[in-house]
Specification:
The protein has about 325 residues and is an alpha/beta fold. The chain contains ten helices and 15 strands. The longest helix has 22 residues. The protein is flat and about 75 Å long.
């Protein structure tokens, strides 16, 4: 009976924490709000290739190629609204920020991991609400925002960055984006000093020049019940050393994946009707010069002439529960 009451009590406290997170009025990357307010981050959409993050501040003006955009014209409007620029030369859209849009518009402090690779690592690490994730390094926060959105509202991200100024800037961004309660930012070189965590993580993500140096500490950070690890590396030589270290520390199911995005363009194509050489229709279906009298139109998916190339390799490994020996 006592255990049942304890479970009910813990569940009640957890539900209250979840409600407090979801009901907060401050803009957050993990929940949607209807109206843009002063201090919120909005994504200014000009074209598909031209977007900018903007922190709203009454009285400020943002210059675009369509004219001056007053912050006051956005404050109080619904996210997704069309906002006219000064002079009436054009308009922009004020979008609610998401991790995907942030990846496309964030200020680059380092090279970043893009959505194609982020989607794969989120799937392969089996991330879900309530997961605890350890990450190094934080960098520009591209992966961090996506992970936090996935594990919210009851999970937690422990992210480590060896560069002090980048760590401080990331901590400031997480606070501005309403994510402080879901992430802990630590300035530390995990390759030499380790994570300093034990038996807490469901998954570990490494984006380091020498990820093999952090494997031993990552194993300690993973829960004794086991977990998943992912390492992002641009070079094959890094993968080789990392895989050797993973095997020596008891990791299994080691797999390396390269994700290449190939977007097809669906378009209408018009072609002349074929002349099959039937005598009864040949005279009717040909014009002067032998061209077909009519065209037929159909939809087709056309592959791109150019496509993004190599970004990096994702190496995944599983740590199974370890049997205790007497």
């Amino acid at each position: 009976m006592t255990d049942s009451l304890r479970i009910v009590s813990n569940t009640t406290v957890l539900n209250e924490e979840v409600r407090s997170i979801l009901s907060a009025s401050k803009m957050s990357f993990v929940r949607y709000k209807e109206t843009a307010e002063e201090g919120d981050v909005v994504i200014i959409y000009l074209t598909h290739e031209s977007m900018f993050p903007l922190t709203l501040e009454a009285g400020r003006i943002f210059q675009t190629r369509f004219g001056a955009l007053r912050h006051s014209d956005i404050i109080g409007t619904r996210f997704g609204s069309k906002v006219l620029c000064g002079g009436g030369r054009g308009y922009v859209y004020a979008l609610h920020p998401t991790p995907e849009l942030w990846t496309l518009t964030l200020p680059h402090r380092t090279q970043i991991v893009y959505t194609t690779d982020i989607s794969m690592l989120t799937l392969q690490l089996d991330l879900k609400p309530g997961s605890v994730v350890v990450e190094s390094g934080t960098g520009s926060g591209s992966v961090s925002h996506a992970v936090i959105r996935t594990i919210a509202p009851t999970g937690h991200l422990y992210t480590f960055e060896f560069h002090q100024q980048r760590a401080e800037k990331a901590r400031e961004e997480f606070s501005d984006h309403g994510l402080s309660s879901l992430v802990t930012v630590t300035h530390r070189n995990v390759c030499t000093d380790g994570f300093g965590l034990s038996d807490v993580a469901d998954a570990v993500f490494l984006d380091l020049p020498s990820p093999w140096e952090a494997v031993a500490s990552a194993k300690l950070a993973l829960k004794k019940a086991g977990g998943r690890l992912c390492s992002f590396s641009p070079c094959v030589e890094q993968i080789q050393r990392t895989c050797d270290k993973l095997r020596s520390h008891g990791f299994c199911d080691i797999t390396t994946i390269e994700c290449l995005l190939r977007t097809f363009d669906v378009r209408s194509i018009a072609l002349p009707e074929p002349d099959l050489g039937r005598p009864d229709t040949c005279a009717q279906t040909q014009q002067e010069g032998g061209e077909s009298a009519e065209n037929f139109t159909f939809k087709s998916a056309v592959p791109p002439k150019d496509m993004p190339g190599h970004t990096g390799f994702l190496t995944f490994a599983t740590l199974y529960p370890q049997m205790e020996t007497s």
